[in-house]
């Protein structure tokens, strides 16, 4: 990896880029994943590159939803595996969720490499290599999934997911938790809970909240009742708009 000086004002952002480039060179990240990351960076810049209070509200609701789920599954793609494999494994442990590799640009080789990265970070029983079911209404390789995993899940966490697949999962009656820095994306607008935050920040926050809420079922209910996705996304847009106004 390139040696990035800690004193660089945008050190954190450059470290994430380096992780993605390393993931790309290792065959974990798809070429298109690099483009998607650039789009995420742009929205993160507009947010001031920080976790907003709106994101924390959504992350708390996400923790509650995962704890209340009977069969939660975390879907992992190349970017997520390159950026924060350890955080995925920890969240799965804290919430009792399964992990399934779900790729938009699928190849068996890439699935196997992502599985190996997750296992290196302590994951057991990673699903995805032998898909035996389909996401209804999603064509070809993009629709493949596991009967024991995403297909039978009641709650699916889909960080950095494509809008088409996110919408299809909702149509199948699943509750979805999406992590996407673009509050305008179809993904954000179709999630049961939509978290507008950088994924390496969002997953540890959900884990922390899940640990906090674990034994408090009434608080879990209260958080979900009070969470309003569209109002939350509008508040995030207002933060971005305010930051743009300051530049003008
Ligand atoms: P959609 O398909 O949902 O309408 P899209 O086609 O623009 O939107 P995709 O490329 O399918 O989006 O998915 C990638 C999304 O993930 C982008 O919206 C991007 O903003 C977001 N993203 C990229 N990197 C990160 C990151 N590190 N953390 C959070 N979100 C990210
Ligand atoms: Mg898309």
Q: Helix count, per DSSP?
A: 11
The H-level CATH homologous superfamily, spelled out, is Phosphopantoate/pantothenate synthetase
Sequence stretches where pLDDT stays below 50 over 5 or more residues: none
Distance between the termini: 37 Å
Beta-strand content: 5-15%
- By CATH, the architecture is named 3-Layer(aba) Sandwich
How many whole angstroms does the radius of gyration measure?
Answer: 17 Å
Structure report:
This protein has 248 residues and is an alpha/beta fold. The chain has one domain: 3-Layer(aba) Sandwich (Rossmann fold). The protein contains 11 helices and 7 strands. It has helices spanning 11-25, 31-46, 53-68, 78-83, 85-95, 108-120, 163-171, 186-190, 199-213, 217-226, 229-247, and strands spanning 72-76, 98-101, 133-134, 144-145, 155-159, 175-179, 193-195. It has a 5-stranded parallel β-sheet with strand order 2-1-5-6-7, with helices on both faces. A two-stranded antiparallel ribbon has the order 3-4. Helix 1 (11-25) packs antiparallel against helix 2, helix 3 (53-68) crosses helix 10 (217-226) and helix 3 (53-68) runs antiparallel to helix 11. The longest helix is centred in the last third of the chain and has 19 residues, at 229-247. The structure holds adenosine-5'-triphosphate and magnesium ion. Residues 36-37, 39-40, 43, 83, 160, 162-163, 179-182, 185-187, 198-199 line the site of adenosine-5'-triphosphate.
